[in-house]
Amino acid sequence: MQQIDTDSIRKDFPILDSKIYGKELIYFDNAATTQKPLSVIDTISESYKKINANVHRGVHRLSQLSTEGHEAGRERVRKFINADKSREIIFTRGTTESINLVASSFGEAFINEGDNIVITAMEHHANIVPWQLLSMRKKIEIRVVPLTPLGEMNMEAFRTMMDEKTKLVSVAHVSNVLGTVNPVKEIIAEAHSRNIPVLIDGAQGVPHQKIDVQDMDADFYAFSAHKIYGPTGIGVLYGKEKLLDAIPPYQGGGEMIGHVTFQKTTFNELPFKFEAGTPDYIGVIATIAALDYADAVGMDNIRRHEEELMKYTTEKMKAIQGMKIFGEAPGKGGVISFVVEGTHPYDVGMLLDKQGVAVRTGHLCAQPLMDILGVPGVVRISFGMYNTIQECDACISALKKSVDMLRR
Ligand code: PLP
Hints:
single chain, about 400 residues, alpha/beta, seven-stranded mixed beta sheet, four-stranded antiparallel beta sheet, globular, binds pyridoxal-5'-phosphate
């Protein structure tokens, strides 16, 4: 088993050398966004210096170079998630936009009044609100699969909640609050046995494990580059060709057209049909550097490393009196959400920050789940490939100090 060499990895992430209030930064907010290696930062800078020109439209050399870079990015993403064809890779602004695209275009074509879609109680707002917007337009029902006490999707309930009116199942690959890794292959097989397509929200899936969309047989898979060491503003929607061909464009504008007259417009072929306007081609090119970096470290190594940090930290945290950790699903990922009796998550987060530890506090864009957990918010520690056991120890002592101060 190859271990992660965090010493050498950390040298590639300049921000990790930062001091926060004079203390060494411990960055434990990776589920919100990851830091970027020099190769990504340099690619952005070099691309603007050397090949910047709008893509797909120019006959000149620079435009050819940027177009080649952009399309190389599509092919790199295809390979990273093992899609069958690069035309099945649509670039968006992020997971949120990818899910909105499906809600809008698939919703337009295939979901009608009286139909329902199935989500789970652990979804991020990005996989709830787009369906509610669709529901406002089309009066559809949103069915929510309950969770088990360990924070897993209740599979028995799931099976009973699908019927002939269910037009889509849309489920997080990994919960950003509980760390639960959903059994996506099984979920998809269950839905497919009833001829229901499945969208997987992979925002927290892609950064932490190997993804094979063909093996899981996902119909749609959405993720964001910024959560896997890539630039902000770049997202991916993978969709099976047959489905993408069958649904209407999401936005109108340049590049998504075949031919335009004032009377009628025909649409471009995949993937351009879904990419209206100038795309963030520099971001796409930098995403190649991010995926290359993650692959060089090894997605299996990253998963093992983060799991080790999560287990180590969880055990130490349990010794803190009044500690309540949410999410105990077997095989959970590198996320620890918690509250400590007698303290407010926001105060804990602020005091950790003063000691250089960056964590997330609040509802984590999962307010319905917070309601189920019976808390207004939590503190969340989330790990990345560059985090170390020493940082976990430092975080635990900072946490103990914060809790002591708040209880005094
Ligand atoms: N889905 C999940 C599970 C997430 O954790 C997030 C972000 O935290 C999103 C969707 C939205 O991602 P983005 O803000 O990059 O669109």
